[in-house]
Amino acid sequence: MINTLVEYKGGGYDGCFWEWNYAFIDKGQFYDIFSSGYAGCKTKEQLYARVLRNKELEENSDFFLYKIRKKSEENEIIHFIKNSSLANVYGVATWFYANFGLADENKREQQFKLIIECSICSEKNFIAEMKLEGMYGIGGIAVDHKLIVCYDCIEKNTCEKCHSFFEDRDNFKNDVCEYCQEETKENNE
Ligand SMILES: [Zn+2]
Ligand SMILES: [Zn+2]
Fold first, then answer.
1. Model confidence over 130-160: pLDDT tens digits?
2. Using CA atoms, how far apart are residues 18 and 13, in angstroms rounded to an integer?
């Protein structure tokens, strides 16, 4: 297998709870991106034995395969991004960033197309160089985010006084959010 990100059901600490785990296989080389619980795979042998059992490697509800290197079809990466939670997409992108030296711009251009549109300005950015915002609960202790934001927008939409991020800055005045404006008004009265 080459250039294949494997997303599979790992986890399972108490036998009933699972979570998405990730591995990358390229030219036979196995990389454990994130594995947890008894169903997590630490080696290629475990991944083949537990997850990739069928010969044709047809995706099913237990695992998904994505080709994510530069040469791949762009829609494979879009598929991964749409199919997975934003927190997991971010985690995987950050792993590639750290382990494949992608902070180097020349290198990353030739390697992984792990880019996504900023939720605010729609400009495409490298996922690992953005920030997750808009946290919400998804049941139990799990949380996810509904926004992935470029640093330009983070800066623009963060209040200068309370340093909170806002999805839109319509009510900002001189880079200060509406709540801090209220406070200043009260203090001046
Ligand atoms: Zn932006
Ligand atoms: Zn504020």
1. 999 988 887 776 778 889 999 999 999 999 9
2. 8
List beta partners, residue 137: 143
* Per-residue model confidence as pLDDT tens digits over 25-39: 988 899 999 999 889
All residues with CB under 5 Å from ion ligand 1 = 118, 120-121, 150, 153
| 62 CB-side CA count, 13 A | 13
Of 1, 57, 50, the residue nearest 21 (C-alpha): 50
- Examine the pLDDT at 114 and tell me if it is beyond 70: yes
Residue keyed to tokens 């290198």: 107
Ligand 2 center to 152 CA (angstroms): 18
CB 112 within 8 A of CB 69: yes
- Kindly report the pTM of this predicted structure: 0.82
153 conformational bin, left if phi > 0, alpha if psi -120 to 50, beta if neither: alpha
One-letter amino acid at 118 equals C
Contact present, 20 and 8 (Cβ < 8 Å): yes
Cα of 5 vs centre of ligand 1, distance in Å, is: 27
